[in-house]
């Protein structure tokens, strides 16, 4: 791909971020039967590769002892009722607040580590743009046939940005986005609605009633992935597709420029350490959870697309550079919202330690000599055409 404009094919998904294929070599997402040429070739290999040298996390005082000019780090104050949907009760809008950032109110047993305020919403929307670029403008990779998708669900829809685009592209499809937080806009396509729902509770959609289920970036939110896939299987109609997008928690490099003890090198470890307390894993990609969960539930024709998503403006290739710049923008827009709950609430870091860590991270993200990337993985599979509602136990 000679320029940075989106194409009909996803950006090169399996090479290093410094290489991008021509339109021909970019190719279609790799199937399970034709695994990617470069690592990770299998979930277990991905696990080793993405796990990094060790899981040791530096103590939080490291960052304040090293010292840093934290002056450029904003403390964000978010509005707590932006974009609420009309059907919500007031209690859903009683968000919890930590250091000026808001988090979802109590819905079932759910626990989500990210903020739900305006700044977090902005980061989600930039992330959506970055991912759409990486996918060459595609909104999905499963082989959906427009006239056969009567009903689609987006689990953990966030701002609903994907669901809005999908509803526009599939005007005859009834699209439902669910989330813990009412942060979706009310001005949406007529075939789209939003529901407040905890995906970790038994789903209330009718069995065999949905043709496509989309899930994106639920890492750190789900205690029992197998149960989630079982619910999806139960809800899908025979022949319906599930598609699940996740990111590894780690920032890595192929050339050693992301040092293990740097702020970027510690990023993933901070989340993994936090998840030991919350019991909700961030290592969905390295652990191969998407494929194994779908297989266990009974899905077939499972396929995978892997992408090393550059973070920053370091790639020479213009298309990857654009993706990297948006990746960095998504991260920088709300670093605090990403780490505040995990570091401060779960792990007991002081506010100062968090802010100084963020200042270090920002500086590294701006350094083009550091070639960081994050592994993204999309897995999609089909409920057998001849099947009952019930998933494998
Ligand atoms: C990182 S955001 C991703 C949002 C959206 N899928 C996207 O890609 O733009 C994760 C979303 O999942 C939601 N979430 C987390 N746990 C959930 C649960 N148990 N049930 C429903 N939604 C959940 C959060 O509220 C948040 O909006």
In words, what does this structure look like?
- This protein is α/β, with parallel strands linked by helices and 393 residues long.
- 32% of the residues lie in helices and 16% in strands.
- It has 11 helices and 9 strands.
- The protein has helices at 23-26, 43-51, 61-66, 118-134, 161-169, 225-235, 263-278, 289-297, 318-333, 335-346, 351-365; strands spanning 96-98, 101-103, 151-155, 174-179, 192-196, 210-216, 236-247, 300-310, 373-382.
- The strands form 2 sheets. It has a 7-stranded mixed sheet. A two-stranded antiparallel sheet has the order 1-2.
- A hairpin with a 2-residue loop joins strand 1 and strand 2 (101-103).
- The longest helix has 17 residues, at 118-134.
- The radius of gyration is 20 Å and the shape is globular.
- Residues 1-9, 12-53 and 70-89 have low confidence and may be disordered.
- S-adenosylmethionine (SAM) binds at residues 104, 110, 112, 114, 124, 128, 156-158, 161-162, 178-181, 198-200, 216-218, 221.
- S-adenosylmethionine binds next to helix 4, helix 5 and strand 4.
Structural class: alpha/beta
Spatial arrangement of strands, main beta sheet? 5-4-3-6-7-9-8
Rg, Å, rounded: 20 Å
Shape: globular
Bound ligands, each once: S-adenosylmethionine
What would the average pLDDT be, to the nearest integer? 80
If helices are DSSP runs of H or I spanning 4 or more residues, what is the number of helices? Answer: 11
| Quaternary status | single chain
Element string (H = helix, E = strand): HHHEEHEHEEEHEHHEHHHE
Low-confidence stretches: 1-9, 12-53, 70-89
- How many distinct beta strands? 9
The share of residues in helices is 25-40%
The biggest sheet, with number of strands, parallel, antiparallel or mixed sense and barrel status, is:
7 strands, mixed
The first-to-last residue Cα distance is 45 Å
Strand coverage percent? 15-25%
Pfam family, one: Methyltransf_23
Family: Belongs to the methyltransferase superfamily. LaeA methyltransferase family.
GO molecular function: methyltransferase activity
Protein name: S-adenosyl-L-methionine-dependent methyltransferase
